[in-house]
Write a structure and sequence with these properties.
This protein is mostly helical. The chain has a domain at 112-337: Orthogonal Bundle (MetI-like fold). The protein is built from 14 helices and no strands. The protein has helices spanning 2-41, 55-85, 102-109, 113-141, 149-157, 164-175, 181-188, 202-230, 234-242, 247-258, 260-275, 279-284, 296-305, 310-340. The longest helix is centred in the N-terminal third of the chain and has 40 residues, at 2-41. The chain is flat, with a radius of gyration of 34 Å. The N and C termini lie far apart (83 Å).
């Protein structure tokens, strides 16, 4: 009898366990269905809270100030410029109605349009090449932690803290042939007999302005490249040295490929800033001598505030914006293909 009693007890325990499992499964299924129904009928707040407490609503709230700022100060002015470019819009008379595409055809008829484009492109190429090369050299010089490196990093970066207009005024005083110290210094050293006009010819005016820009922005771009250099693991360099690579091989095979994102950012900022050059030429040369240093942005300024034609100036602005967008797209595409290869 005892084996039968034991078997009955074991069977009872198994049945009780099975009932417990079924009960648990049933309760879990009911709870799951209830949760799904709750989420459907009461979206998406935390713990079933109101919609304004959801993560999506909080994200929209955080993005709203920036979106408002961009809309008010970029999107709406851009739409207004687009309307101006299609209208007869004198500065002092206001909108006189649509005259499209007269503004765009008048742009190409301007005698300064093509010279301004050629000069702007020439200036951009020179500044970009010199700045990238010098910034990379400075970054490599202050890459390692040595005594005095912090001082040189600060000295190199210090001109970048000065505003471009202030730096242009400073160099305008330095370049002055009558009151500037540079011309007097050269005369005192016996290198020249007469006062030097650094801004008196097209070539000297261009090179003098390039020197100003390189002096001001080399430290800023050095800082960008220095951050990229410091992100390269030291183990990579150590492994290359153990394999017998020299400095040139390390620079060409390791440093440049791993520094490509920082170089791309530097190239993008430098090219865009050079294409939009205005302050330095407006203060130093005012487009002279003989309109030889007129940039495309100076031409926009002249159309808007000297010829008082906002329509033509807006058409020029739209053309410049389209060219900048195209150049940026081409740069990003080229960098993406280089990374994939």
């Amino acid at each position: 009898m005892q084996p039968q009693v034991a078997d009955q007890a074991a069977a009872g325990r198994r049945a009780s366990t099975a009932r417990t499992r079924r009960t648990f499964r049933t309760r879990h299924a009911k709870q799951t269905r209830h949760t799904i129904r709750t989420r459907r009928t009461n979206p998406p707040g935390p713990a079933g809270g109101p919609w304004w407490g959801s993560r999506k609503a909080k994200g929209l709230a955080y993005a709203a100030p920036t979106a408002t700022f961009v809309t008010v100060f970029f999107v709406l002015p851009l739409l207004l410029v687009g309307q101006m470019s299609l209208s007869d819009w004198p500065l002092l008379a206001g909108d006189r109605g649509i005259n499209s595409p007269e503004n765009y055809t008048d742009v190409t008829d301007n005698t300064l349009f093509w010279p301004a484009i050629r000069f702007t492109l020439l200036y951009t190429v020179i500044v970009t090449a010199v700045l990238l090369g010098l910034a990379l050299l400075l970054a490599l010089l202050v890459q390692e932690s040595r005594p005095g490196v912090g001082f040189f990093r600060t000295v190199y970066f210090l001109p970048g803290a000065l505003g471009l207009a202030s730096a242009s005024l400073l160099f305008w005083g330095l370049y002055s042939p009558t009151t500037g110290p540079l011309s007097a210094l050269l005369e005192g050293l016996g290198l020249v007999d007469d006062p030097v006009s650094f801004l008196g010819s097209p070539t000297s005016a261009l090179l003098s302005t390039v020197f100003l820009i390189v002096w001001k922005f080399a430290g800023f771009y050095m800082l960008i490249l220095l951050v990229g250099l410091q992100r390269i693991p030291h183990e990579v360099y150590e492994a290359a040295r153990m394999d017998g690579a020299d400095r040139w091989q390390i620079f060409r095979r390791i440093t440049l490929p791993l520094l490509r994102p920082s170089l791309a950012l530097t190239l993008l900022l430098c090219a865009t800033g050079s294409l939009l050059a205005f302050d330095q030429f407006f203060i130093l040369t005012k487009g002279g001598p003989d309109n030889s240093t007129v940039t495309i942005v100076q031409l926009i300024y002249r159309e808007a505030f000297q010829r008082l034609d906002l329509g033509t100036a807006a058409a020029l602005s739209i053309i410049v914006l389209a060219v900048l967008l195209l150049l940026n797209v081409l740069q990003f595409r080229g960098l993406r293909h280089a990374d994939e290869s």
